[in-house]
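Example for tutorial group B:
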C-alpha cells in the first residue's frame, strides 16, 4: 500500500536533485517519537518504507502543486505517517518548502493469475556489490581497495542482468522475512524470476548522481531505471509483485531508490489457460 501527499509550494525554489537525505529526514520526523521504529531506523533493513521523488520535476513557483508517494508493506507505518501529516502540514525539503494539502491512500493491483502488466521504476535502482557478492557473480574485484570493507562496485550492463536480478530478489527476500506474509514462499525460494522483461528507460542504461546519505557525506552513485514486464503466474508470484510495489527494489530503498509505479495492467483473456 502507499499514500500520496499533495503538496502546495509556499515559496519559489529551484528543484533540488539531491533531495534524498532531506526528504527521508522529513518522512522520518513522522516516526521518530515511536520507539518501535527507533530501534530499527539505522539498521541495514530499516523501518520498511520507500518513497518517490517530488514530482513533477522542474522549477517550483509559489502556489505550484507537487506530489510525493510513500509506500510500505507495513500498514502501521503508513497509518502513523497519515496521523502525523494530518496535524503537521509543513513539508520542507531543504529550500523546497511545501504545505500538505491532501493525503490519499492507494493500493495498486497487479491482477489475478494470468494478468500481464508493466511496472516502472520511478526512482533509480541502487545496486552495489561488496566483495562477497561480486565474487558470487564473477565480477572483477581487482579495482577494490584492499581491505576497505566500504568499497563497492556499482552494477553496470557488463556485469549482466543476472547479477542485477539476483540483487533485487535478495533485498526483497529480506523484506519478506522481516515484514512479509509468512504464508508464502519468499522471492528467493522459488525458481522463476520476479519480472519477465527488463527494458532500460535511459539510453545509456546507467547514470550517476551525487548522493548524500548523511549530512556530512556526499558520494557519487550509479543507478539504473527500468520498465519491468510481468505475467502473474500464481498467487505466490502475485504476492511478490505486490511486495515489490510496497517496498521498492534494490538497495537503499529507505533513501528514495527503487520506488515502483504500476503503469499497465491487463486482465487474463477469457478462457486462457
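The residue assignment follows.
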Amino acid at each position: 500500500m502507499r499514500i500520496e501527499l499533495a503538496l502546495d509550494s509556499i515559496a519559489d525554489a529551484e528543484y533540488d536533485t539531491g533531495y534524498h537525505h532531506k526528504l527521508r529526514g522529513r518522512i522520518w520526523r513522522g516516526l521518530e517519537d515511536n520507539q518501535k521504529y527507533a530501534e530499527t531506523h539505522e539498521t541495514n533493513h530499516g523501518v520498511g518504507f520507500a518513497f518517490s521523488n517530488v514530482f513533477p520535476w522542474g522549477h517550483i513557483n509559489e502556489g505550484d502543486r507537487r506530489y510525493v508517494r510513500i509506500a510500505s508493506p507495513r500498514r502501521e507505518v503508513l497509518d502513523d505517517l497519515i496521523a502525523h501529516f494530518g496535524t503537521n502540514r509543513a513539508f520542507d525539503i531543504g529550500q523546497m518548502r511545501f504545505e500538505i494539502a491532501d493525503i490519499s491512500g492507494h493500493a495498486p493491483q497487479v491482477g489475478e493469475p494470468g494478468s500481464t502488466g508493466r511496472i516502472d521504476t520511478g526512482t533509480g535502482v541502487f545496486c552495489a556489490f561488496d566483495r562477497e557478492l561480486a565474487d558470487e557473480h564473477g565480477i572483477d574485484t581487482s579495482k577494490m581497495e584492499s581491505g576497505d570493507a566500504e568499497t563497492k562496485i556499482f552494477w553496470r550492463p557488463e556485469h549482466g542482468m543476472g547479477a542485477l536480478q539476483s540483487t533485487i530478489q535478495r533485498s526483497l527476500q529480506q523484506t519478506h522475512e522481516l515484514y512479509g506474509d509468512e504464508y508464502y514462499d519468499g522471492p528467493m525460494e522459488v525458481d522463476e524470476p520476479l519480472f519477465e522483461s527488463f527494458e532500460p528507460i535511459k539510453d545509456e542504461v546507467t547514470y550517476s548522481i551525487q548522493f548524500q546519505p548523511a549530512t556530512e557525506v556526499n558520494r557519487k552513485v550509479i543507478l539504473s531505471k527500468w520498465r519491468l514486464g510481468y505475467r502473474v503466474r500464481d498467487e505466490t508470484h502475485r504476492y511478490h509483485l505486490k511486495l515489490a510495489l510496497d517496498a521498492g527494489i534494490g538497495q537503499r530503498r529507505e533513501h528514495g531508490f527503487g520506488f515502483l509505479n504500476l503503469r499497465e495492467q491487463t486482465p487474463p483473456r477469457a478462457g486462457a489457460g
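The first strand starts at residue 2 and ends at 9. Compare this with the pattern of hydrophobic and polar residues in the output above.
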